[in-house]
Amino acid sequence: MMWLFVLGGLIASTGSPVSARCQIELSPPKVVVEYGDPFSVNCSSSSDHIEGMGWESPEGGTGFMNGVSSLPLDVDSIALWSINAQCYVTLSDGQQCTERLPVTVYKTPDSVSMPQPSPTGPMVEGQKYRVQCAVAEVAPARHLVVQWHKGDEIFSVDEFNVSSVSPLNVSSVRELTAHRDDSGTRIWCEAMLNFLPAGPQLPPMQSKSHEVIVLLSGEGCSLILKPSRVVVGFGEPVSVSCEAARPVRVLGWESAISASHTQQDLSVQWKVDSLIDWIEEPICYGVFFTAPRQCEEKLNLVLYKTPDSVSIRPVNHTGPMVEGKEYQLLCEVQNIAPVQYLTLRWYREKTEVYNHSFSDLTSSSPVQVSSILLVTPTKAENGAQYRCVAELELGPEGPQPPPTVASEPLNASVYFPPTFLSPEPEVVDLTVGAEISLNCRAAGNPTPVYSWQSPHPTQETMENEAVLTSSSLLPGTYTCTASNALEKKSKQFIVKAKTKGV
Ligand SMILES: *[C@@H]1O[C@H](CO)[C@@H](O)[C@H](O)[C@H]1NC(C)=O
Ligand SMILES: *[C@@H]1O[C@H](CO)[C@@H](O)[C@H](O)[C@H]1NC(C)=O
Ligand SMILES: *[C@@H]1O[C@H](CO)[C@@H](O)[C@H](O)[C@H]1NC(C)=O
Ligand SMILES: *[C@@H]1O[C@H](CO)[C@@H](O)[C@H](O)[C@H]1NC(C)=O
Ligand SMILES: *[C@@H]1O[C@H](CO)[C@@H](O)[C@H](O)[C@H]1NC(C)=O
Ligand SMILES: *[C@@H]1O[C@H](CO)[C@@H](O)[C@H](O)[C@H]1NC(C)=O
User: Which atom of ligand 1 lies closest to the CA of 72?
Assistant: First the structure.
């Protein structure tokens, strides 16, 4: 299509004195032409002193023509997106002047559409949605105007500040808030090339229109989900049916991975063979013949995953613990979901000593969590095993018994000083020639080592045993020392000669 401006009166051309002497007129003074179309422009001069004129142009250029005062530029089919054309005039005194011809080459869009992320299904009242209008292969984009329509209303207009003159894909994006009054209206976008105030009037191109369905949540919905709550292991199949309790025009599932709808049945299934989408929130909606005309029911869906690992270790500490000191044990749980259903239970041997729940967290996708147990071991706990068990309590719809993952046990080694059964001195009667035993045995970790001190320096070297057995001891006070890495403890044995005749 070609558009020639009607020349109104004398040339509006640039007030250059030279041009003014040449008195060049272009008719029409500007061209707006569709790519591939012909156009023609007359260059003329009303000067009396004209020697000749010519058109310089990559298409339809003429060369210098002697003795003419009017010369057309004829282009059969414009095949450039921008064209630099000018008419030049030479006067008899040798002066030359030129007049540039503004040419706008346009192309109407190949298509106008509302692709994703525009909502094609029902929207939930109060939520925000992005709508996009895609205009394919239009030129020049700076003349493009996109109008957004909702029912009878134009709710937004977009223009494009783009310098490129060749065809471009452009898009206009708007954010909508779903409102109940919009339900049932249609939304579409319209693209047109605007060459106003003077230029061709091209018809606008429209995208397909979409019906806006706004779902109201809440009472009187008459949609029943069976089951109403589902608990699914990661990667497992799931199916839920949504049933309408009254005649329905459209019944469907809004879901990122498995949307479906029906216009015939009173029931529609949401079915996934292997659920792995942590953010899936399926919603069943119904569009009814009677009020409330639209409503929705959100599925209570729990996708869970047992932890990859549960491990236990002391914090900032290696080796045995010492009786009476405070230590921290750390339990780490990798990749658990949803963490709000997790309880970490700490066991010493068979006894639960602490539990930690994470119900205040909200993540639906897998996370890593940990728990710290403070312990102050006693010597009785030497050798005890600590364990941490992750339990996912997913409710009655979940697996029974609740899935658990236990850590490897942590063997507690508790150091404690040597401890005698009775630390008081012992009195031992000595019968000459009879063998006696002095028992210095003490509990302790590490196992104590013993040494003995005799009151008789000349006596043979005594062995470093817990129990001293001999038939050759002389009376006196013997001291035994039990020692380990923590402490030395001593105990005395008073060996008395047995008085005859008593
Ligand atoms: C070009 O303009 C001249 C002078 O106005 C006129 O005589 C002539 O007919 C025009 N030619 C065309 C092709 O319009
Ligand atoms: C158009 O874009 C240019 C460069 O990006 C900028 O300088 C100019 O201000 C913009 N004009 C409008 C109307 O936005
Ligand atoms: C416009 O989009 C179409 C389809 O996506 C593509 O084939 C074409 O190359 C794009 N054109 C430009 C100028 O980007
Ligand atoms: C562990 O030790 C590091 C460095 O010694 C210290 O910064 C950190 O606070 C300690 N952690 C605990 C739980 O005591
Ligand atoms: C956690 O421990 C507390 C007491 O320590 C106990 O009352 C509670 O029942 C335990 N919670 C669970 C879920 O076992
Ligand atoms: C922990 O103790 C158990 C039994 O008391 C033993 O079988 C196991 O080997 C010990 N583990 C380590 C790592 O010492």
Answer: 13
Question: Which ligand ends up closest to the CA of 141?
Answer: 3
CA of 314 to the centre of ligand 4 (A): 12
pTM: predicted TM-score of the whole model, two decimal places: 0.54
Nearest to 19 by CA among 45, 56, 42: 45
CA-nearest residue for atom 11, ligand 6, is 411
167 and 119 within one domain: yes
147-158 mean pLDDT? 94
**CA distance linking residue 254 with residue 260, whole number of Å:** 7
Tokens in use for 402? 């609740």
Residues 41 and 61 in one domain: yes
Report how far ligand 6's centroid is from the alpha carbon of 35 (Å).
Answer: 85
Residue ranges around ligand 1 (CB below 6 Å): 42, 44, 70, 72
| 436 falls within a domain | yes
293 near 287, Cβ under 8 Å? Answer: yes
pLDDT in tens, 413-467: 999 999 998 889 999 888 877 888 899 999 999 999 999 988 877 666 667 888 9
Domain-located, residue 502: no
- Give the N- to C-terminal CA distance of the chain in Å, as an integer: 144
* Domain extent for 439: 418-497
Q: Are residues 392 and 467 in the same domain?
A: no
Domain boundary among 150, 181, 214: 214
